[in-house]
Design goal:
single chain, Rossmann fold, two-stranded antiparallel ribbon, alpha/beta, globular
Length: about 270
C-alpha cells in the first residue's frame, strides 16, 4: 500500500481549488462577512474574543478566519500546501490576520510553539487520522490549564452505514469499530460540487468510535465537559438527505433518525 497520508494529501491539495469555487463554501458571502460557522459548533463556542485558538486541519482557513473575526488570535494548521497558500491569500484579501502553518497534525507540537485557550477541530477531521490516542495527546499538549477542545464531526455510527444507499432504512457497511488498517475509497466525486471530477480519487480513512475518542481524551488527562449528538451535519452524507436554511443536511422527516454528528468539549484541568 502507498503511504496513506501522502495519498490523502494529494487529494486534499487537488480539491482546494474546487472548494474555493464551490457554492457550498460560498466564498463571495464569506468575503462579505455573511457566512460564519455552523450553528452546532457556534452554540458550543461562547465568547472567544481575546483567546488564543489553534485550528487543526484548517483547510483553506475559512473557519479559522471566522474565529478571528470573532476576536480570537488564530493559528491554523493543515498538511495541504495548497490549502495553506489559499488560507494566507484569503487572510490578506479580507484583511483579517491569522497565522497558517503547513504540517501533519501529529507533527504540530514540533511546528507550533505556545499554548492555547481553545483547540478547534471540526467537520471531516479525525477520519483522516490513523491514531486517535496520539491525536488526543497532541490536543492535550497544546491546551493551557483551563483550555478547551471543541470537536464537532460526523458521528462514527453514521460513517459506518452505507453512504451510497437512498433507502430510508440505512444498512451497516463499513463497521463501527476502529481497525488499524484504513478503509480504502476510490471516489472521483467531491462533496462540495456534484460536477467535479477529482483525479486523485483514492483516499484512506479510519473510523473512530465515540467510546475510543472520549477514552483517548480522558487518558490524555482532559476532562469531558459535554458530548452532544445531532440529527444533522454540514454535508450530504447519504443521497436522500436535504439541506436546511442552516446549511445542515438531514435525513427525510419520516425516516428513522440516527445520530449524524456530535460535538465534544473537553477541558484541561487547572
Ligand atoms: C474536511 S477538511 C476540514 C474542513 C475544516 N473544518 C474547515 O474549516 O473548512 C479536512 C482537512 O484536513 C486536512 N488533513 C487531512 N489529514 C491531515 C493530517 N494528517 N494532518 C493535517 N491536516 C490534515 C486536509 O488537508 C483538509 O484540509
Amino acid at each position: 500500500m502507498s503511504d496513506p497520508i501522502a495519498v490523502n494529501q494529494a487529494r486534499w491539495d487537488e480539491v482546494v481549488g474546487v472548494h474555493l469555487a464551490s457554492n457550498m463554501y460560498d466564498m463571495a458571502a464569506f468575503k462579505a462577512g455573511a457566512r460564519g460557522l455552523h450553528s452546532i459548533e457556534a452554540e458550543e463556542l461562547g465568547d472567544i474574543s481575546g483567546q488564543d485558538v489553534l485550528h487543526l486541519q484548517c483547510h483553506f482557513g475559512m473557519d479559522s478566519l471566522a474565529l478571528a473575526r470573532m476576536g480570537a488570535r488564530v493559528t491554523g494548521l493543515d498538511f495541504s500546501g495548497e490549502a495553506i497558500k489559499a488560507a494566507r491569500a484569503l487572510s490578506a484579501d479580507i484583511d483579517v490576520p491569522a497565522t497558517f502553518v503547513q504540517g501533519d497534525v501529529y507533527a504540530a507540537p514540533d511546528l507550533i510553539a505556545g499554548k492555547f485557550d481553545l483547540v478547534f477541530v471540526t467537520w471531516g477531521t479525525i477520519c483522516w487520522l490513523p491514531d486517535i490516542e496520539r491525536w488526543a495527546r497532541v490536543i492535550a499538549h497544546f491546551l493551557r490549564p483551563g483550555g478547551r477542545l471543541l470537536l464537532a464531526d460526523a458521528h462514527p455510527f453514521a460513517l459506518s452505514l452505507d453512504d451510497e444507499s437512498d433507502a430510508d432504512i440505512l444498512q451497516p457497511r463499513y463497521g463501527y469499530f476502529h481497525k488499524p488498517e484504513p478503509l480504502i475509497f476510490d471516489d472521483p466525486s467531491d462533496y462540495s460540487d456534484d460536477k467535479a471530477v477529482i483525479k486523485n480519487s483514492k483516499t484512506y480513512e479510519w473510523i473512530h468510535p465515540i467510546g475510543e475518542i472520549v477514552t483517548a481524551l480522558a487518558d490524555a488527562e482532559l476532562g469531558i465537559r459535554s458530548l452532544k449528538e445531532y440529527d444533522a451535519l454540514p454535508w450530504r452524507l447519504f443521497p436522500n438527505m436535504t439541506e436546511g436554511e442552516d446549511r445542515l443536511w438531514r435525513l427525510p422527516a419520516g425516516a428513522p433518525q440516527i445520530p449524524l454528528s456530535f460535538s465534544l468539549i473537553t477541558v484541561k484541568p487547572g
